[in-house]
# Entry
Amino acid sequence: MNSSHRLVSATTRAHVLLIACALLGYSAVAGAAGTPVGTVIENTASVTFDLAGTPTTVQTNTTTLTVNERIDVVVTLQSGQVLVAANDTNRALLFTVTNTGNGSETFSLAIDNAIAGDNFDPVEAVPAIYFDTDGSGDFNAGDVAYTPGTNDPVLDADASIDVFLVNDIPAGVVNGNIGRSELTASSTTGTGAPGTEFTGQGDGGVDAIVGSTGGESAVFGEYVVSDVQLNVAKTQVVNDQFGGNEPIPGATITYTITVEVVGGGTATAATISDPVPTFTTYTPSTITLNAAAITDTTGDDAGEYDTSGAPTIVVRLGDLTAADGVQTIEFDVTID
# Structure
């Protein structure tokens, strides 16, 4: 083969390599939804060939691009149905707002109580939106109110914040009525159909592109009017194997759950179910109800350690009224 044939062959191979690299480069960009905004992606191809018996390498120019910002957000409901009574005030639903985009983003928050499919509209408290400032999951005086345009949450990629919607319950509702309250989180950069572009408005001045959520997410929670009100709380105490209280492998966590009926009515067939946390192992024969031992076996008393699915502590409290007082359940797990 003469040198001209070798050069033609080398050129052909170079074309093949360049096409392959171009395809690979496209795939990387298309699938890089989680790559941080501003990341620089570079690609250089090379071709090696034999030129008159001499190994030779030729490189292409380097292609460079910067990853744009993708705008996405997800709102999730953390509360179960909240039991309420007529004329209750400051009843809270807990939500989590998560930035599922690939850059830092600011979000505005809004409440909507005119949601179809319920029996009554809760009445917005003033203010009606709060941040769970202390991370307790319970609405209290230390939680900071949200003021639109003043303290809109700024979330890094994959970061989240817990938010309360706080409402009053109107008069005239009856047992079993349901009222819905919805939280909407919207990107302040912009919302729209997926693929909508906001030129130069992403982090660092890159373009911002609306992702699959449209840059906005809304979820509602529910209030249920009930003549039975339950106060339910859970606490934990850590005791390590060295006499301290450090949560290290081998330490014991004692969980305490309290249940109390408030007001009139009966909580029929009340049952506590508590899944054993991931990264822990249940300590056998540690379930108690009001300080009395409960066996781990199913069917011989009021509770059991249920392993038919995800390991779960189950305690059946029966029919409860306010006269029964506080019911206390405890059990232990060990940190793996």
